[in-house]
Amino acid sequence: MAIAGGNPTVMSASTFVIQVDGIQVATFSELSGINTEVESVEYISTGREGIVHTKQYGKTKPPTVTLKRGLDTQTYMWSWHQAVLQGDPAARKTCSLQLFAAAASPKSGQPIITYLLENAWPSKLEIGGMKAGATEVVTETVVLHCDQILMQPAG
């Protein structure tokens, strides 16, 4: 596998959009992280050189995506999470996570990068603490689990 060279451009995104079946279902202002992981396994063998210790690929962990936004009247993520809570097999959806640059918007520009989340489902939905009379924005945090994440660069 070749690693591309050249002059990479550092990305700065301002909007994150979840699309299901090509329809925008939620817009987020913060991507807390995309996590993928492969555990390492210690392998010990003996040979002419004696005992050899190496690290090998181990079990993969399902990827997770954590997104935050100001709570609004969009209810898709809530309904989707409710379907998961009820054990609905149709709640596993392949969706896209699009990152838009600060100068672009989901309505006018192209995403700078798109991640395809295969068989995604919201495992956690958290509404931030609220206090009567407070002026802070109430936040909604969503954690999506999926089987695989594929990256689709712009262009």
Provide a concise account of the structure shown:
With 155 residues, this protein is mainly beta.
Overview of the molecule:
- Strands 1, 2, 3, 4, 5, 6, 7 and 8 form an eight-stranded antiparallel β-sheet that branches.
- This protein has one domain: Pnp Oxidase, Chain A (Roll), CATH 2.30.110.
- The chain has one helix at 76-85, and strands at 13-20, 23-28, 30-47, 50-70, 93-101, 113-127, 139-145, 148-153.
- By secondary structure, the protein is mainly beta.
- The longest helix has 10 residues, at 76-85.
- The protein contains one helix and eight strands; from the N terminus they run ββββαββββ.
- The mean pLDDT is 86.
Key words describing this protein structure:
single chain; 155 residues; mainly beta; Pnp Oxidase, Chain A; 1 helix; 6% helix; elongated
Which series of helices and strands comes N to C? EEEEHEEEE
Q: Which oligomeric state applies?
A: single chain
CA radius of gyration is 20 Å
Regions with little confidence, pLDDT below 50 for 5+ residues: none
Q: If you consult CATH, what is the topology?
A: Pnp Oxidase, Chain A
What is the CATH homology-level superfamily? Hcp1-like
* Helix content class: under 10%
Examine the secondary-structure arrangement and name the CATH architecture: Roll
- Major sheet characteristics: 8 strands, antiparallel
The span between the termini is 21 Å
Query: How many domains, as an integer?
Result: 1
Strand content: over 45%
| Name of the CATH class | Mainly Beta
